[in-house]
């Protein structure tokens, strides 16, 4: 279709495979090119998507008239790739984490604004239908006032040969990797997070980064969120998010989502669980709507910045095992609004 947005994909690794499946069958957008420094990997993915392959995102952007690009490369590369694409007037959906630090994230957001293009951080769980339904249940007061959220992303994975465990490339370990999803989920339900507390577990794989952590967050109203992250254990839970309220509980699961009121005995099923392809497709569609001016972003630049900000504070707190403030300084401007970012953390005894 001639009115489809023309997308490129930068990076042909694991996450790019998920995007390839999501793009298949989409009406709003199609992939016209894939680039990767490993040309064989780019060629393999391009063959699947029936598009062109490049060994350089620069060459791809120079030769083709692209509307948008999905950046699926390691975090250390995000800033430079995105800045180059912005200068060419190309919209960017960037995989999480947006950047290794808030200074780079601020530069990326401000540069996108200056060139008049859209920058969105990929946050697939915000687009999961069951997560959206759970948020609606919370907003309607179905389970009363929220008291506590529990989230767990734990799975036994050998990380010895993966870039995610190389701090110079990834920025850290499981905390910045899976933790970025967790922090964004917490913010989706709790709003701004004011404090974090992190404890590290045993490093059973002998990595140079954290493999297992327990993260506790708190918003200004005192609502707590508990997060378990691990590459070394599999808790084998049926769900990844439980929301406890004064009048009930909501459980968002991998295969089924349900809620139960304290006044009743039965669970009420409201969803069929996490559908990865659906989440990715909804995310791409939302991104396309923002580009076309027909919709608002479900993940805003402020959300993306806050995810970097909270993870920074979490790493600062990891050194002392105390509650750490997410400090609102210095200030930067996003789309004409003043938004504050963290540069250092104060500890609370």
- Looking at how many chains there are and whether they match, the oligomeric state comes to single chain
Share in helix = 25-40%
Distance between the termini: 60 Å
Largest beta sheet, briefly? 10 strands, mixed
Secondary-structure element order, as H and E?
EHEHEHEHEHEHEHHEEEEEEEHHEEEE
Spans of at least 5 consecutive residues whose pLDDT stays below 50 are 329-349
Strand tally is 18
Strand proportion: 25-35%
- Overall pLDDT: 92
Taken from the alpha-carbon principal axes, the silhouette is: globular
Task: Count every helix, treating DSSP H or I runs of 4 or more residues as helices.
Answer: 10
Radius of gyration: 20 Å
Strands of the widest sheet, in order across it, are 14-13-12-11-7-10-9-8-15-18
Tell me the structural class. alpha/beta
Please tell me about this protein's structure.
This protein is an alpha/beta fold and 349 residues long. The chain is 34% helix and 27% strand. The chain has helices at 14-23, 39-49, 57-63, 78-87, 102-115, 129-139, 167-170, 174-190, 276-292, 301-318, and strands at residues 5-10, 29-35, 52-54, 68-71, 91-94, 119-121, 146-154, 193-200, 212-219, 224-230, 239-245, 248-253, 257-261, 268-271, 323-325, 331-334, 337-340, 347-348. Strands 14-13-12-11-7-10-9-8-15-18 form a ten-stranded mixed sheet, with helices on one face. Strands 3-2-1-4-5-6 form a six-stranded parallel sheet, sandwiched between helices. A two-stranded antiparallel sheet has the order 16-17. A hairpin with a 3-residue loop joins β12 (248-253) and β13. α8 packs across α10 (301-318). The chain starts with a strand and ends with a strand. Residues 329-349 have low confidence and may be disordered.
């Amino acid at each position: 279709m001639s009115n489809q947005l023309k997308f490129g994909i930068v990076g042909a690794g694991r996450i790019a495979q998920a995007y390839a499946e999501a793009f298949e069958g989409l009406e709003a957008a199609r992939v016209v090119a894939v680039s990767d420094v490993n040309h064989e990997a780019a060629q393999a993915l391009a063959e699947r998507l029936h598009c062109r392959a490049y060994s350089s995102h620069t060459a791809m952007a120079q030769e083709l008239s692209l509307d948008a690009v999905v950046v699926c490369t390691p975090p250390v590369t995000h800033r430079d790739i995105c800045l180059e694409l912005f200068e060419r007037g190309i919209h960017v959906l960037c995989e999480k984490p947006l950047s290794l630090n808030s200074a780079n994230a601020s530069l990326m957001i401000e540069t996108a604004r200056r060139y008049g293009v859209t920058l969105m951080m990929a946050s697939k769980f915000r687009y999961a239908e069951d997560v959206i339904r759970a948020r609606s249940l919370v907003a309607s007061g179905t389970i009363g006032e929220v008291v506590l959220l529990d989230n767990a992303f734990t799975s036994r994975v050998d990380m010895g040969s993966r870039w995610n465990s190389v701090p110079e490339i990834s920025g850290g370990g499981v905390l910045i990797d899976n933790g970025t999803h967790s922090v964004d989920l917490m913010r989706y339900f709790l709003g701004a997070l004011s404090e974090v507390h992190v404890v590290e577990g045993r490093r059973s794989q002998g990595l140079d980064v954290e493999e297992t952590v327990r993260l506790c967050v708190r918003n200004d109203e005192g609502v707590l969120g508990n997060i378990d992250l691990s590459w070394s254990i599999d808790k084998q839970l049926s769900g990844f998010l439980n929301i406890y309220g004064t009048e009930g509980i909501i459980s968002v699961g991998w295969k089924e989502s349900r809620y139960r009121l304290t006044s009743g005995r039965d669970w009420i099923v409201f969803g069929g669980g996490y559908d990865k392809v659906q989440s990715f497709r909804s995310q791409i569609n939302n991104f396309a709507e923002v580009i076309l001016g027909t919709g608002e972003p479900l993940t805003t630049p402020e959300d993306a910045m806050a995810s970097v900000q909270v993870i920074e504070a979490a790493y600062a707190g990891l050194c002392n095992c105390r509650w750490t403030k997410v400090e609102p300084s210095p200030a930067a401007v996003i789309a004409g609004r003043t938004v504050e970012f963290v540069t250092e953390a104060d500890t609370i005894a």
